[in-house]
Amino acid sequence: MLAPPPVLLSADRIAERVTELAGQISRDYAGVDDLLLVGVLRGAFIFLADLSRRLTVPCSVDFIALSRYQHGSTATADVRLIMDLRVPIAGRHVLLVEDIVDSGGTLDYLIRTLRARNPASLRICALTRKAECAPPGLRIDYLGFDIPDQWVVGYGLDYRNQLRTLPYIGMLDPAVMQCSESGAIASGADSGDARLRMLGAER
Ligand code: IMP
Ligand code: MG
Description:
The protein has five helices and nine strands, in the order E-H-E-H-E-E-E-H-E-E-E-E-H-H. With 203 residues, the chain is of the alpha/beta class.
């Protein structure tokens, strides 16, 4: 079991920001009566639960789940749908709700996949973004926080399916990740590769 990591975003700060985002979304979608929130499993489930309960516009909720596979030893990875939406989205106003944007690959895949289904509109809400990693052209309509390029856990975000239920967002010590990837601290493993392997295991 991993020890609770130091706080990056406290539960209070997250709650305050989620309320602000919900206010902004409710204002923007005023008059829309078929808003569909699409949560990306598993990381977005807590954010989606809190955000949806603060909206003042009617909405329904669906989920989508992805997996990421690495090709051999290269740094490229394939995003694949492992659980699709239960409802058609053609003509619906869709708000995609993500926990975190890192390289932007997941979001890019989701946007292309959902756009092809002809929703009336598609917007993106992400709780966090690693600003140094995300492509500058990737538009996020509702963003909670820009955070540093570090592995974060809690409030739905996991490390190897652990620490998701922490009430705050904390920064995982990179040594912990290296240690559990290689069995030894400072093994010399490429941290990017290690991280991609880990993403493959968890998404
Ligand atoms: P991207 O495709 O590189 O943007 O990665 C986004 C996805 O990777 C998120 O939906 C998360 O599932 C996962 N992820 C990326 N960074 C973190 C992190 O720091 N903590 C937990 N999950 C992360
Ligand atoms: Mg995610």
